[in-house]
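Lab notebook, bench 4. The sequencing result for the construct came back, and we need a structural model before the next group meeting so we can plan mutations. Quick request posted to the team channel:

Model the 3D structure of this chain.
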Amino acid sequence: MTNDNWLEIGTIVSAQGLKGELRVYPDTDFPERFEEPGKRWLLRPGETEPKPIKLLEGRYIPNKGIYVVKLAGISDRTQAEELRGCKLMVPQSDRPTLEEDEFHVIDLIGLEVFNQLTGESIGVVVDVASAGNDLLIVNPQLSTSNEPGKKTKEKQILIPFVKAIVPVVDLENGRIEITPPPGLLEI
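Done. Here's the predicted structure in token form:
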């Protein structure tokens, strides 16, 4: 399998305690990935193919925004520390089914954003941030400065990912259309 066949669900950031537990920063909105026992895959830095590993148990630490997990074969702090920086993965085929108007973050990244009113290209989605509502983080198009041949990069635009502002998400054609309220696009 190539890396296109895998989804990253979290990054091991440190050991937790002395008995081999691990702190994992999540990269998924599905808590069962860290709480329900079963097979996961571990991708070590510098490697291209993840290796299977069994998740024994896990729990969420709300004030830290992390999960603490126990993996099979990791029984002390030294073994746990050796996994710092490793990624936890699942096969692409394990993607949860979403409801209508729900999207996987990875599918939104790279989509071009257009102003529905003007047809103008705003930029490209580079990430999604969680806040009260999710925010699309958009890198604007490069604009030409007063000096010929010199381009400047503008600040990223944060677009609330709500139906009223983002009425069209067209994954098939790689585009998002927005109806920005006054002031949203002014940097």
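Confidence is low (pLDDT under 50) at residues 143-152.
Will bring this to the meeting.
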